[in-house]
Amino acid sequence: MKNLFTIGLLGLALFLCLGSAKPTFSPDDSILIINKIEIKISGKSTVGDYNCGNSLIKKDSIFLNLNKKNSISAEIPMSKFDCKNKIMTKDLQTTVKTKIYPNSYVTLSEIRPCGKNYKCNLTFLITDKTLKYKDFILNTTGNKIQGTFNLNFSDIGLEPPVKMAGLIKVKDQIIIDFSLYKN
User: Fold this and answer.
1) Strand, helix or coil at 102?
2) Separation CA 142–CA 49 (nearest Å)
3) How many helices (H) and strands (E) would you count in the chain?
4) Which are the contacts of 36, defined by CB distance < 8 A and separation ≥ 6?
5) What are the residues facing 170 on neighbouring strands?
6) pTM of the complete model
């Protein structure tokens, strides 16, 4: 009888220990909560480098490894880009034809973990051109998930700006940097 009582007590203790054990996966690893998207455009000209940025407050959840919503989309108002210089900002807005194409759109879909980073499919609509990138890498740094790609103005049917009778020329290649800020 004493052995039965001891076995019962050990079984109860084991049940309580295992019942309070935490799962081996973290629910936070399967959900990304995004609260801001930042897009930067940078490039070079004959007079130096330029950097233009646009931040959007966008609260969204991305469910990884689940058959739920696994994408994030954003409408990017092109008139909200700021180059920290009025002339540069106006030139960018003229170049990307904000009066005809006031918004660009970005969609990151099929987001999946890839080590500490992520892979996704990126669709970027700027002017009337749609650019698609499969297995686009998003690097994780602190509370930020970031991806970068290069393109040319000519890839999207645009001419790089030229000013002062050709003394100031913007190079054709630009760098677009997407950052998603996690909660």
Assistant:
1) coil
2) 27
3) 2, 9
4) 55, 56, 57, 58, 180, 181
5) 45
6) 0.74
Q: For residue 164, give the 3-state DSSP assignment.
A: helix
Residues 6+ away with beta carbon under 8 Å from 42: 49, 50, 51, 52, 174, 175, 177
Q: Which H or E run includes 176? A: strand 168-182
pLDDT tens readout for residues 68-107: 668 888 899 999 999 988 888 888 898 889 999 999 999 9
What's the rounded mean pLDDT across residues 101-114? 90
Written as six digits, the tokens of 82 are 């700021």
Q: By three-state DSSP, how is residue 172 classified?
A: strand
Confidence of residue 160 (pLDDT cuts 50, 70, 90): confident
Q: How many other CB atoms sit within 10 Å of the CB of residue 37?
A: 21
The tokens for 180 are 């998603």
Count of other CB atoms within 10 angstroms of residue 129: 14
Positive or negative: CA dihedral 80, 86, 90, 91: negative
